[in-house]
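[job 4471] stage=fold_predict status=RUNNING
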Amino acid sequence: DVQLQASGGGLVQAGGSLRLSCAASGFTFDDYVIGWFRQAPGKDREGLSCIRSSDGSTYYPGSMKARFTISSDNAKNTVYLQMNSLKPEDTAIYYCAAYSGLVTVTIPTLYDYWGQGTQVTVSS
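[job 4471] inference complete, writing structure tokens
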């Protein structure tokens, strides 16, 4: 079975950092694009970044690259999201997801498999 296990969330003060992890299993890691998304209460799910596991190509929509960095450890089938200079508006549930393809985009409907999410809360 395909499984994506997101972890690393928690409570952090504004200006702090967190590193989220997404451990993948049940599929050939190199054949997939892994993305990070978040969803705050009352808001749509928002794409943050994605990485093509086969060659490490990354994509960041909008201004996400300024504070967020995605990386992967293919030996561990794990993708990370380093988040710096966190703000209260970053408070949300953060999800990792995967789809079988080559195009690095963060369109939620494109992704076939989703992890359970990890809560990130940034206090002011």
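[job 4471] summary: The two ends are 40 Å apart (CA to CA).
[job 4471] exit 0
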